C-alpha cells in the first residue's frame, strides 16, 4: 500500500516492435494538480504516455479515466498535489507506465473502518494504491 496521500497506478504496456525497444524511455515527469486546467494537462499527458508505451485504445481509456479520477480527487478532496509519470521497463523489454498521484490532504484517521462496507468519510479522502495490468 502507498504511503498516506499517495496513490500508485501501475500498468504494463504492450511489447513494442524491436526498433522501439532500443529507444530510451522518456524521463519521469511531474505535473501539479492545483487548478481545473491542471486536470486537463494531466489527462493529455497520461493519454500521450499510454500511446508512447503502446497501449491499445481500451487500455488507454482505462488508464486515462483512472488517472483523471485520482487527480480530480487529489484536487477536490486532497488540497491539491502532483501526478508523476514514470516509464519502467521489464528485463525482457516490455515497457510500462507508472503513475504516482500524491495529495496534500489529511487522510483518514481510521483506515480499517473506512475500508468496511457502508463507511463514508463525509468529505475526507482515503489513501491507497490501484494497479491496472494490461
UniProtKB/TrEMBL annotation:
<dbReference type="Pfam" id="PF13581">
    <property type="entry name" value="HATPase_c_2"/>
</dbReference>
<feature type="region of interest" description="Disordered">
    <location>
        <begin position="1"/>
        <end position="33"/>
    </location>
</feature>
<dbReference type="InterPro" id="IPR036890">
    <property type="entry name" value="HATPase_C_sf"/>
</dbReference>
<protein>
    <recommendedName>
        <fullName>Histidine kinase/HSP90-like ATPase domain-containing protein</fullName>
    </recommendedName>
</protein>
<feature type="domain" description="Histidine kinase/HSP90-like ATPase">
    <location>
        <begin position="36"/>
        <end position="118"/>
    </location>
</feature>
<dbReference type="InterPro" id="IPR003594">
    <property type="entry name" value="HATPase_dom"/>
</dbReference>
Amino acid at each position: 500500500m502507498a504511503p498516506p496521500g499517495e496513490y500508485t497506478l501501475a500498468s504494463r504496456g504492450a511489447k513494442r516492435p524491436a526498433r522501439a525497444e532500443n529507444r530510451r524511455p522518456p524521463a519521469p515527469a511531474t505535473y501539479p494538480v492545483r487548478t481545473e486546467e491542471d486536470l486537463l494537462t494531466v489527462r493529455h499527458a497520461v493519454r500521450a504516455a499510454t500511446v508512447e508505451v503502446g497501449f491499445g485504445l481500451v487500455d488507454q481509456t482505462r488508464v486515462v479515466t483512472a488517472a483523471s479520477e485520482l487527480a480530480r480527487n487529489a484536487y477536490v478532496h486532497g488540497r491539491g498535489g502532483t501526478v508523476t509519470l514514470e516509464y519502467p521497463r521489464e528485463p525482457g523489454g516490455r515497457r510500462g507506465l507508472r503513475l504516482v498521484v500524491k495529495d496534500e490532504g489529511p487522510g483518514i484517521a481510521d483506515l480499517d473502518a473506512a475500508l468496511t462496507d457502508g463507511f463514508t468519510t463525509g468529505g475526507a479522502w482515503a489513501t491507497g494504491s490501484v494497479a491496472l495490468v494490461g
